[in-house]
Amino acid sequence: TAAVVCFPGIFYRSGAEQKIRKYFVENNFIDCIISLPAGLFFGASIAVYILILKKSKTDNNILFIDANSEWIPTQDRMTNSKKTKDLSATNIQNILDLYANRQDVEFRSRVVANNYIGEQGYNLSVSTYVE
User: How many domains does the chain have?
Assistant: First the structure.
């Protein structure tokens, strides 16, 4: 199992990135994709995703988790402003619970079959599947 922090564009752009997504989906390597809120990482004002890869999966589905609401305001140590975001222990546990349960939860998570993702052009953007 591996977890990779990625920028959102790689999950929907065409070209080489789409070919890589197709390879990962068709070989059943993607376990979960988690969308995190913008502003969690210093110097990155856009949202980031966590891509969880697993070689020995037992199903042909991908879990999508929208964790954009899982954050608390924190004080920026450089500017003393409260414009940054952080994940609390509760936020992290909420995300882990969604991952462990692997169920559809309205506005939070959805389990999607790999063949359906193929029908969507291998778009792996969380917002495409979680409503």
Answer: 1
